[in-house]
Amino acid sequence: MAFTIGELGKATGTKVETIRYYERIGLLAKPERTSGNYRSYGKAELGRLSFIRRARDLGFPLHQVRALLSLSDDRTRDCATVDALARDHLAEVERKIVDLTALRSELSALLDSCEGGTVGDCRIIEALAPPATSGETL
Amino acid sequence: MAFTIGELGKATGTKVETIRYYERIGLLAKPERTSGNYRSYGKAELGRLSFIRRARDLGFPLHQVRALLSLSDDRTRDCATVDALARDHLAEVERKIVDLTALRSELSALLDSCEGGTVGDCRIIEALAPPATSGETL
DNA sequence: CTTGACCCTGTAGTTCCTACAGGGTGCATA
DNA sequence: TATGCACCCTGTAGGAACTACAGGGTCAAG
């Protein structure tokens, strides 16, 4: 029910130093301490750190992670504020899903051609290719 | 048909300094120069830089971006090498799609509850919550 | 009671940009 | 022709987000 920093790190795939860093910058609250001055964490911190790490893995910078966390931290916000914040992030999430889906297609196609024994043309760059500035004929 | 570094930056949403940085670390080849010593780029560089930026936005570190680019750069690789590399990245891409989809659901739910006029409980942390270590009962 | 795995605080290094400083290019326009 | 102004050049230094020690304390096992 209570973990050490090392256990929390293992459970979330985070280096111990990184957890202390997040505490230092205020992304994680200062945890309880044991009699021997060891940090002691519960399941709430496990969830929060897990969220942070996965959001980071998805390319969100820490200031955006902080904003996302504030959606659940700050129960005093009014609807309009929450709405605007969530809407922006939703748009970004959807954009990323589109890009990842294109990348997945291209990696799949590459694997399929490999299965046939030949390397085949790699169009992986085209998968995430030029910005969708409508109307260009490059 | 040929762009300056500033145009390339605008087209890909990249700062000029970042493009020069990518050149310095060998992620982009040294481009042609004009008579006035300006860098001159073509559409190949536009595609490549676009790919790099979007892969970065999706959370891939530069060494992985380099590996992905090598799939299309290195025409001498054998199938087994390409296969292993592509397979690893495909797994990671799929994992990210799962996470982003969960995050999208949670943000949508939050927006829906807002639309109803109430802030509603935010389960955004749960969306990307603890690692899927099967069998835990926290 | 000591040994090894873990924890503590600090600080310095790495990655990936980002922002000047100090100077040159190139095109419009007065 | 000159004189802006926006853009380019090569540095180098700063910032964000970690990551890796150094030097020392804690604790369960043997």
Automatic annotation (TrEMBL), chains A, B:
It comes from the Bacteria. Pfam families: MerR, MerR-DNA-bind. Transmembrane segments: none annotated. GO terms for molecular function: DNA binding; DNA-binding transcription factor activity. Keywords: DNA-binding, Transcription, Transcription regulation. Residues 2-71 form the HTH merR-type domain. InterPro entries: DNA-bd_dom_put_sf (IPR009061), MerR-type_HTH_dom (IPR000551), MerR_fam (IPR047057), Tscrpt_reg_MerR_DNA-bd (IPR015358). SMART domains: HTH_MERR. The keyword Transcription regulation applies. This is Cu(I)-responsive transcriptional regulator. The lineage of its organism: Bacteria, Pseudomonadati, Pseudomonadota, Alphaproteobacteria, Sphingomonadales.
